[in-house]
Amino acid sequence: MDKLKGRDLLSLANLNSEELKEILQLAAQLKSGEINLKCNKVLGLLFSKASTRTRVSFTVAMYQLGGQVIDLNPNVTQVSRGESLEDTARVLDGYLDILAIRTFEQKDLESFANYAKIPVINALTDREHPCQILADLLTVQENFGKLDGITLSYFGDGNNVANSLLLGCAMVGINVRIATPENYLPNKEIVEQAKTIANGKSEVLVTQDPQVAVKDSQVLYTDVWASMGQEQEANNRIPIFQPYQVNEKLVESAADDVIILHCLPAHRDEEITDAVIEGKKSLVWEQAENRMHAQKALLISILGSD
Ligand code: CP
Ligand code: NVA
C-alpha cells in the first residue's frame, strides 16, 4: 500500500509502470469499497491557478481517508507578497505531511520539492498534469477491462495534459497518438521519454493529421485550446485548432466502441461539440469523479495507511 512512501510525484515519469498499475488497482479497490483505508494526515494545497476538480477531489479524498486539508491560496499567504518558494517550502515542511502544488513553471515545482522534505505532488504545471492521467487511465480500465493494447488519440494543444498522457499511456501499453497543429507540439523531451518507455511494444505517434490519429481509435481525448495563462491567445488560436475539434464527424471515423474523454473544464463548440460531450459515448463525468478515487490511492501510496 505504501510503495511510494515519502516520494514526490512531480512528473508521471517519477513512477515506473508497475507502480502506476498498482495505484490504479488500489484506486479501483477503494472505489468499489473492496478495501477501506484510513490516513490521518494533513495535506496542503498551494494553488497559483484556478481549480475546481483538483481542489475538491483532493479535499474530499483526504476527508474520506480521515485526514485534513489546508487550502493555501497564495493570495491569503505571504507567497503573494513575495516570500520566496524556498522559504515557504521549508516552513510548510514543519506543519504539513504532504503538499500538492499547482503552478506555472515545472522548475518552480521542482525547486519547491528540493527545499521541502515532505512529499510534493504536481497538481498541474504548464508541463504536466499527472494526477489527471491517473483518473483517465482508471476510466479507460473500467470501461474496457484492460489498458494494454487500447488506442487513445488526443486532439488539440500539445499541452500539460497531452504530455502526461504520452507518459502514462506508454507506461501501461496504450497506443497513444497526439494530433496537434505544427506549432503546438507536445514537449519533445517527453515524446522521446514516452518512446523509450514504450520500447516499440506500443505506438507513440505525434501527427498533424487528425484523420491519421482517429483511425480505429477507442478513446478520443481533448482539452482546451488555450490553457490557463494563455488566455490572451485564445481568439487567435480558434482558426488554427478548428481542424482538431472533437465533433460527430471525427467520432464516426473512430472505432465502434470509442469513448470520449475530456479533463474539463470544457469550452463547448470549441475543442469539443456540445453533442459529443453530452453524447452516449462521453464518459467525462465518470472521468471527473475518478480524480477523487485515483488521488485517494496516490495519497495512500505516498503516505501509507494508519
Ligand atoms: N481537470 C482539472 O484539473 O480540473 P480543475 O482545473 O478544475 O482542477
Ligand atoms: N490544459 C489545461 C488543463 C486544465 C485542467 C490548463 O492547463 O489550463
Specify the CATH homologous superfamily of the largest domain: Aspartate/ornithine carbamoyltransferase
CATH architectural group of the largest domain: 3-Layer(aba) Sandwich
Whole-number total of structural domains: 2
First-residue to last-residue Cα separation = 11 Å
What's the structural blueprint in terms of helices and strands?
Elements: H1 17-32, E1 42-47, H2 53-64, E2 68-71, H3 85-92, E3 98-102, H4 106-115, E4 120-122, H5 130-144, E5 151-155, H6 160-172, E6 175-179, H7 188-198, E7 204-207, H8 210-214, E8 219-222, H9 234-241, H10 248-252, E9 259-262, H11 274-277, H12 284-303
Parallel strand pairs: 1-2, 1-3, 3-4, 5-6, 5-8, 6-7, 8-9
Helix pairs in contact: 1-5, 1-12, 2-12, 3-4, 5-6, 5-12, 6-7
The structure holds phosphoric acid mono(formamide)ester (CP) and norvaline.
How does this structure look, described?
The protein is α/β, with parallel strands linked by helices. The chain folds into two domains: 12-128 and 289-303, 3-Layer(aba) Sandwich (Rossmann fold); 132-287, Aspartate/ornithine carbamoyltransferase (Rossmann fold, 3-Layer(aba) Sandwich), CATH 3.40.50. Helix content is 42%, strand content 13%. The protein has twelve helices and nine strands. The chain has helices spanning 17-32, 53-64, 85-92, 106-115, 130-144, 160-172, 188-198, 210-214, 234-241, 248-252, 274-277, 284-303; strands spanning 42-47, 68-71, 98-102, 120-122, 151-155, 175-179, 204-207, 219-222, 259-262. The strands form two sheets. A five-stranded parallel sheet has the order 7-6-5-8-9. Strands 2-1-3-4 form a four-stranded parallel sheet, with helices on both faces. α1 packs across α12 and α3 (85-92) crosses α4. The chain is globular. The mean pLDDT is 97. Bound molecules: phosphoric acid mono(formamide)ester and norvaline (NVA). It catalyses: carbamoyl phosphate + L-ornithine = L-citrulline + phosphate + H(+). It is an enzyme of class 2 (transferase). This is Ornithine carbamoyltransferase. Its EC number is 2.1.3.3.
